[in-house]
Amino acid sequence: MDFRLTDDQRALRRGVRALLEGRFGREALRAALDRADGEGAAGGRERADGRLRGDGRVLDRGLWRELGAAGFFALRLPEGGGGAGQGLPEAVLAFEEAGRVLLPGPLIATHLAAGAVAGAATGEAVVTSADGGLVEWLDEADVVLGDVTGAEPLAPLDPLTPVHRLPGAGAARTPDGLLVSLLSAAEQLGSAARTCEIAAQHARTREQFGRPVGAFQAVQHLCADMLVRVETARAAVYAASVTADPADVAAARLLADEAAVRGARDCLQVHGGMGFTWESDVHLHLKRAWTRTHRAGGATRSEEELAEDLVSGAV
Amino acid sequence: MDLTYTPEEEEFRARLRTWLAGVLPTLPPKPSPHDWPARRAYDLGWQRMLYDAGYAGLHWPVDAGGRGATPTQHLIYLEETEKAGAPYVGANFVGLLHAGPTVASEGSAEQRARWLPPVLRGEEVWCQGFSEPDAGSDLAALRTRAWRDGDDYVVSGSKIWTSHAEVADWCELLVRTAPGARKHRGITWLAMPMDAPGITVRPLRTLAGSTEFAEVFLDEVRVPAANRVGAENDGWRVTMVTLSYERGTAFVGEVVACRRVLSEVAREARKNGRWDDAALRRRLGGLNAEFRALWRLTQWNVSEAQGTGGVPGVGGSVFKLAYSHARQELFDAAAEVLGPDALDLGREWTLDRLSSLSYTIAAGTSQIQRNIVAERILGLPRGR
């Protein structure tokens, strides 16, 4: 047993991080946010639902193709089939990096469609998929999987995740629910790790009462608990990527959801008043984290699965 | 990210399982928790069995009489012994996991020859004299004094939270030998024979009603200077070296046990109807996630320790924070499942709920652990 990342896995993580930091750094994030925000504000045309909407697209298709060229979507396809022949652990590392930088778009649906939907693997196509009662990025997708009849747009909580509500109870399971849960947990993990870093960075540098606020134990302990949740979630997410066991995946998603949501909230708290501003990135992490918690049946389904696991199988 | 065990590791596991299956039925009945001499005899007897089978000091270095096992083998050992229901380390805890490793790492050849074999063979019990009434989280503030008189140190003061003091042969004792020096600099590590004149042991009753600890009062106790490990006034470093001996395996057996208990709690809920309460059911599901993750975090920390040659990072603090909290949550949930029976001390989970309260205090409170995580991992400035 050696649970640590292999050298190849470390290299893959470094590579994805370098690509995303170069191509989707803070400026690109804020530009995407402005595009999404401008949909409502800057003289767009009026839609049937009364909301304003511009003609501009939020997703950067050039970046999407670059992701395709870098193998982000084809990562798990066999090498002979245009893929990189990697497994779930590598996919989880890549999605963790996407979560760190709040990379927008239906990344999971497109990744899962690679090899099955033309253009998905190369990033030529943006693919989305109905997931329970919701579908993300419906208006910008080239290919939509699942039945989205009667989809109604919501004013999205996360400006960088437009969502439509689907009629009915929304109980329909996504065929790839397990993988959606796992890759979403990986994104949550990346976001949680990032908000922990941002909080610690702020606590080291922001001074009040003549010293860094991070010298106050009340602040230290918020940050320490953030890290505990990150590292516990990390162990669960990585292990689930190795075993692909449904109970491991359910555990991973629960812990990663919690690490991301509570991490973003605590990060916001550590930032004080600035954390409450639009200018800060912290709210983007929180809103995205909240959005991800609704995927693949949400926490309720995972908790019920894990409860059932306790009484059904061997421990 | 490899979670599979090597053929050697699997073979180690299989051999251990076979041995446990054969030997456990031959154990004498468990002694009463209140009968300390019987507990000592039982724990030493088990240690002797381990010794005879070649499992004693599994994680100790070979040149100290140990088996030089890898952290992963140690993990397997702890996992399998817990699953098989083997006795806990009990009275051998300090000898095997703290004092022994300290002597192995910092002691002279004579000291190693004198103290290590009896620990491995299950012949001598050690206790720990570190904490004091006024030196808990701030251990380096300890005030028990020792001064040199000929070939002896003369020791006066008091220690607290000393497990197994009533039945111990030796006490690993931290004393202050240079009162004027900065607090970490004036401390010395001594092995004190527990039959020396001037030692008074007073059992300390815990809120669970049992006497798991003792206070130890020292009134001009003479300890031979030859029993000093490391240099005079170098005891803090000597102690810290040993603390870094821990290789991510500290709570392996406990996590395995908690997962079993959680499953039993869920089955009890199914039996008594509490399972129909969706909120409680989901809470148990959430705990399943926690303990699954803690098991993976254990594997992670063990892998890290194996990769770095045995010195763990501060991952131990992260683990302890998460685990001690989860353990308390587990027995709170068990009480919820038990309903009115949670008031019955005859129910094992009720006693476990009480004892779980010590987990966020013992071996570094959760507050101290958070300081460690904040300052040493996250690089926040030292707070006060």
Explained architecture:
The complex is a heterodimer of chains A (315) and B (384). Chain A is α+β, with helices and mostly antiparallel strands. Chain A has two domains: 7-131 and 133-165, Orthogonal Bundle (Butyryl-Coa Dehydrogenase, subunit A, domain 1), CATH 1.10.540.10; 177-312, Butyryl-CoA Dehydrogenase, subunit A, domain 3, CATH 1.20.140.10. Chain A is built from ten helices and nine strands. Chain A has helices spanning 7-23, 26-41, 61-69, 88-100, 107-113, 177-205, 217-243, 246-270, 282-292, 298-312, and strands at residues 45-46, 52-53, 127-131, 134-136, 143-145, 152-153, 163-165, 207-208, 211-212. In chain A, the strands form three sheets. A five-stranded mixed beta sheet of chain A has the order 5-3-4-7-6, with helices on one face. In chain A, strands 1-2 form a two-stranded antiparallel ribbon. Chain A has a two-stranded antiparallel sheet with strand order 8-9. Chain A is globular. The two termini of chain A are 20 Å apart. Chain B has three domains: 7-88, no CATH class; 126-233, Butyryl-CoA Dehydrogenase, subunit A, domain 2 (Beta Barrel), CATH 2.40.110.10; 246-377, Butyryl-CoA Dehydrogenase, subunit A, domain 3 (Up-down Bundle). Chain B contains eleven helices and eight strands. In chain B, the strands form two sheets. Chain B has a four-stranded mixed beta sheet. A four-stranded antiparallel beta sheet of chain B has the order 2-3-7-6, with no helix packed on it. In chain B, helix 4 (93-106) runs antiparallel to helix 5. The two termini of chain B are 39 Å apart. The model of chain B has no long low-confidence stretch (mean pLDDT 94).
